[in-house]
Write a structure and sequence with these properties.
This protein has 40 helices and 25 strands. It has a 5-stranded antiparallel β-sheet. A 4-stranded antiparallel β-sheet has the order 2-3-1-6. α11 packs across α12 and α13 runs antiparallel to α14. The longest helix has 37 residues. The chain is globular.
């Protein structure tokens, strides 16, 4: 671009800026173009001045203006100094800039030093640059950047050096006072987190040595160290985030993660958090100025987040208003900032200014271009007027409110041809018309919306519902007839609404015609969808055929060795519940198992097929709900539950396709009361990564503050003891959405909790979902096998998530390992490695799920070999020494629990018993209201069986007994002692000792005591006389009785 073209471009930019002075992109172009032209320094300054007149600017702009101001003003006059200081103040109010603050401080220090020497200060300057004035001015500058953990020392160190310099120059009389000031100054700094805390402590130590008595030194240093300890912990917790910022070159994504950590902390540090926001905002502004994609959106997000933080933490009116004034200079096109600004003014009693701010927002001319910016501003203004209608009698409020909403809808439609898909302003305006009893106007709102967005089912259902509400049934029927064949985004909702309408209000002829037309429309839609699916399927097939399966390749057949243990291992098919067939295989060869995959059986889709019904009238019956929803589809189950302050119900359908029609029942009336209907999972949260100590009571207390909890469901740990998550279901969707703010909250240091809406479509994203199907069990490993060997072998089948190999004290393998894959199909594919030779040993590979493995263990030759193998330390040292099989050992550690409440959760029962003993796993049998609790050892089981105090669980007194062979009970728990407190041994028959190679003798028939009816009931003397003696009791506690 030559000089003439540049000048033409500059003239065009200036013309555009006169029309759109708040467009930051035009100002940036103006600045860069002026800077690229030689001899246009004055135009560069003009570009900078024009920018800061309308918008906030970064340090690159303000540095140029400050340089120019220092060259032009007379610093020997009060007016000149105040003009320059005012420029510094404006620069510092836009964005946090350590270089600008450093420059400001250096100016103050230099001018103070200038007049402290031989130079005579002009009388016109008054107190300017006096020692007291300079101390206050420096402190104000340092205060603005003191929260910057990594760079605040660049400011504070200047202040420290200046203060120590003043200490050396004061008189003896003034020295004691200044020493006290500096001591407080040091101690306060040590209590603030900063990167060079060690250096600050050294300076304080030197200061104390030189200015305090030896007797004071140690107490002062101890006090300072205590103040510093908290600051050190604070900065240590944030070091990972600061390191991540440096490594990412201060990326906006890393700032967002940093901010999330600060906001979700158990005890947020507002001092640090605000500065992190300021740093993020300043970085986003730099990147926006450089034209980085997404920087503008990030800048808006950071400003909105900072405003919310100040409100939530009660920062006060002055702090909030200052942020809003700065934010609208930075992002004047952000509707959320304007909306929050108006709500803050209303909250602090300055409602009369809301109209002014509303007009200012649209007067700038940026908000109107985006419907997502228009709507928040309009709703904020409309909300303020609506609240006034309930408190004031001004007749002009309602027309003003309606006018604002209608103008807002017009702006939305000008910004987007299809308007707002969520119809937020239309819904608001329709309700206002309804409350004002302007029924025709409410209908007109939806008719106008239908013209704008013809394919939205939501528009048409809203229109027909409004017509029906106002008894304009013929018009509603006409609308249904006109639109039932249109290409809508959800035609099924319209068809269901039409059928419901005809059933409620139409004639038999009308209903028949409706059903015929809907059937025809369904056929047409299905044909169209089938063609679309066929096209998509073909495209997917084209992609799929290019993907080749990964298999293990062997470069050479290993030579047979007499020391190699050759074991033929059955191949487990990929379907559960079928036995593996033995398959002979020659030594040195590897034949992979052939896998025949069958389609999985259909499962009960409870989450997608269940709706939640709230706000029910008192005394509602299940039959009434069945009548309400029977036309939506076949109902599987209806449950009505009485909560402390409300009545709610769940309705489960056989088919998930019935749910859309059921959702149209929202706001329908039962017994003259509107009910709320929503998908059950939308009010359910998936919660994980909470502390292991957190039980049901902790979760209910934590989430109960957001609304009424309907249920908390805990997972069973019988197959995987490390599972730590739960589902929290509220009675309302709003409560669940509000509780999402707990996401990232640290209940335990460095363990942020995860809280998500429990969308069933995202189950596969959860870490624990289908964990059992993704894990394999590898046995028969050589003692020299390493995790690297396993990783090399099994990663060829898919991405590995974790390898857990059991090792001895020397780090050698104990012969088995567990490998968890990211995907279930990869785990199934890895079964091909069964009987593979690794480290001169044949390995066995099965799914680790005990439901599969236990069914094959006794018939599997390799597992039998492992039982005898010297590498299987567990079987040799633990079970074999006891003379019992593993199953018998498990029974000795287990107890049977009876009289459980209906629908007892495994997880809740395990929590209850974990408070009494060391529990390994719990399995509940719902149909019997019983459970088996497996303890860590027999002693723990004995302690529970001999417990005299009753165990109350959800109002039921539990009955405990010993778990017998095949689940049969041999003995009940001991009854409470008689008055006098003597120990009453329980009755039981001793068992013979058995071991490998010895036949077990049948035990004599056990003597079963009568069930215990109550905790206070005493046992008879005859029962006591048949029990074991105290030696048996002590042996049992020592883990030797089985």
């Amino acid at each position: 671009m030559d000089e003439a073209q540049s000048l033409d471009a500059l003239a065009k930019l200036l013309n555009d800026l006169s029309e759109r002075p708040y467009d930051i992109n035009l100002h940036i172009q103006h600045f860069k173009l002026a800077k690229s032209l030689e001899g246009m320094e004055s135009q560069v300054i003009s570009a900078c001045e024009m920018l800061v007149d309308f918008l906030a600017a970064g340090e690159q702009i303000w540095s140029i203006l400050i340089n120019a101001k220092e060259k032009t003003v007379d610093l020997e006059t009060k007016e000149g100094v105040e003009e320059l200081l005012a420029l510094y103040s404006r620069a510092e109010s836009d964005y946090l800039s350590i270089p600008i603050l450093q420059r400001h401080m250096q100016f103050l220090i230099d001018r103070h030093e200038h007049y402290s020497g031989e130079n005579l200060k002009p009388a016109a300057l008054g107190d300017l640059f006096s020692t007291d004035w300079t101390r206050i001015a420096i402190a104000e500058v340092v205060k603005q950047g003191v929260g910057h953990l990594m760079k605040s020392h660049l400011l504070w160190d200047l202040q420290r050096d200046w203060e120590l310099q003043q200490l050396e120059s004061v008189t003896f009389i003034e020295k004691n006072h200044l020493q006290d000031i500096i001591q407080v100054f040091f101690v306060a700094r040590l209590g603030q987190p900063h990167s060079n805390s060690e250096e600050t402590l050294e300076y304080y130590s030197t200061f104390t040595t030189n200015n305090r008595s030896p007797a004071q030194y140690e107490p002062l240093l101890v006090t300072a160290s205590k103040a510093r300890a908290h600051a050190l912990k604070s900065i240590e917790r944030r070091e990972p985030f600061e390191d991540a910022l440096v490594k990412s070159n201060y990326s906006l994504d890393e700032y967002a993660r940093y901010i999330t950590y600060e906001r979700r902390a158990r005890n947020p540090d507002l001092f640090v958090m605000i500065t992190v926001f300021e740093r993020a905002i300043a970085e986003a502004e730099k990147r926006r100025f450089d034209g980085e994609t997404g920087a503008e959106e990030a800048l808006r997000m950071f400003w909105v987040g900072l405003a919310d933080v100040l409100r939530i933490n009660d920062a006060g009116e002055e702090g909030e208003m200052d942020i809003f004034r700065r934010a609208i200079r930075s992002v004047p096109g952000c509707g959320e900032i304007w909306a929050r600004y108006m709500r803050a003014l209303e909250r602090y009693g300055s409602g009369e200014q809301v109209a002014e701010i509303f007009n200012q927002a649209f007067g700038i001319g940026l908000v109107q271009s985006d419907i997502e910016e228009i709507i928040p501003v309009v709703l904020a203004r409309a909300g303020q007027l609506r609240r006034r209608t309930g408190n004031e009698t001004d007749e002009e409020i309602l027309p003003t409110l309606i006018g604002i909403l209608e103008n807002g809808i017009d702006m939305v439609r000008r910004a987007s041809k299809t308007g707002d898909a969520k119809l937020r302003l239309e819904k608001y305006l329709a309700v206002i018309y309804q409350q004002a009893e302007l029924h025709d106007n409410a209908i007109n709102v939806w008719e106008a919306a239908a013209k704008c967005n013809k394919s939205s089912y939501l528009v048409w259902t809203s229109l027909t519902e409004t017509l029906i509400k106002y008894q304009q049934l013929e018009r509603a029927a006409g609308v249904f007839r006109d639109i039932h064949t249109k290409n809508l985004d959800w035609p099924e909702a319209i068809w269901e609404a039409w059928i419901n309408f005809e059933q409620l209000y139409g004639s038999i002829e009308g209903l028949d015609q409706c059903l015929d037309k809907v059937e025809k429309a369904q056929y047409q839609v299905n044909v169209r969808r089938a063609k679309e699916a066929e096209k998509a399927g073909y495209q997917g097939f084209q992609v799929a055929v290019e993907v080749k399966p990964t298999t293990i390749t062997e470069t050479a057949t290993p030579v047979a060795d007499p020391d190699i243990v050759d074991v033929n291992v059955d191949s487990i098919p990929r379907q559960r519940g079928t036995k593996r067939e033995a398959e002979a295989e020659p030594i040195g060869a590897h034949k992979k198992a052939k896998m025949e995959q069958k389609p999985p059986p259909l499962k009960r889709d409870r989450e997608n097929s269940t709706i939640f019904v709230g706000d029910l009238p008192a005394g509602i019956e299940e039959e009434e709900l069945i009548r309400l929803f029977k036309d939506c589809g076949t109902i599987r189950e209806v449950k009505v539950t009485r909560m402390p302050e409300s009545l709610v119900a769940t309705v489960e359908f056989f088919d998930r396709d019935s749910v859309p029609a059921a959702l149209t029942k929202d706001k329908k009336k039962l017994r003259e009361q509107e009910v709320a209907v929503h998908l059950a999972w939308k009010s359910t949260l998936y919660v994980t990564n909470f502390p292991e100590s957190a039980d049901d009571a902790v979760i209910r207390d934590l989430f109960g503050q957001y609304g009424t909890i309907f249920d908390v469901r805990w997972p069973s740990k019988k197959y995987k003891s490390t599972r730590r998550f739960c589902y929290v279901q509220f009675t309302s969707q709003t409560s669940a959405e509000n509780a999402l703010e707990l996401h990232g909250r640290e209940l335990e240091l460095n363990h942020p909790m995860n809280v998500f809406i429990s969308n069933p479509e995202r189950k596969k994203e959860r870490t624990d979902q289908d964990a059992n199907e993704k894990e394999i069990y590898v046995a028969g490993l050589s003692k020299f096998t390493t995790q690297a060997d396993l990783d090399k072998l099994f990663k060829s089948y898919g991405m590995i998530k974790e390898i857990r190999m059991s090792t001895d004290d020397k780090g050698h393998s104990k012969g088995f390992a567990f490998i968890e894959y990211e995907q279930e199909q990869d785990a199934l594919a890895s079964l091909d490695a069964n009987n593979y030779e690794l480290k001169r040993r044949r390995i066995a590979v099965t799914l680790s799920d005990s439901r599969v493995r236990n069914r094959t263990r006794l018939t599997d030759p390799l597992f039998f070999h492992l039982l005898l193998s010297s590498h299987c330390a567990y079987y040799r040292n633990t079970v074999a020494d006891s003379g019992l099989s593993r199953m018998a050992d498990t029974r000795n550690r287990s107890i049977r629990v009876r009289n459980l409440p209906a629908n007892t959760q495994d997880g809740l029962l395990q929590q209850a018993f974990e408070k009494l003993a060391a529990v390994k796993r719990v399995e509940v049998f719902i149909d019997q209201n019983e459970a088996v609790v497996e303890l860590d050892n027999a002693a723990e089981a004995g302690k529970l069986l001999l417990r005299t105090n009753p165990i109350i669980f959800n109002g039921n007194t539990l009955q405990l007994s010993e778990e017998g062979r095949d689940g049969a009970t041999t003995r009940l728990a001991a009854p409470p002692p008689k008055t006098g407190g003597l120990f009453v041994p329980r009755a039981a028959a001793s068992r013979p000792r058995a071991g490998l190679g010895h036949a077990r003798k049948p035990a004599p028939a056990p003597k079963i005591s009568a069930p215990i009816a109550s905790a206070n009931q005493t046992s008879s003397s005859s029962q006591a006389s048949q029990g074991k003696d105290q030696d048996d009791f002590r042996n049992m506690l020592g883990g030797k009785i089985f």
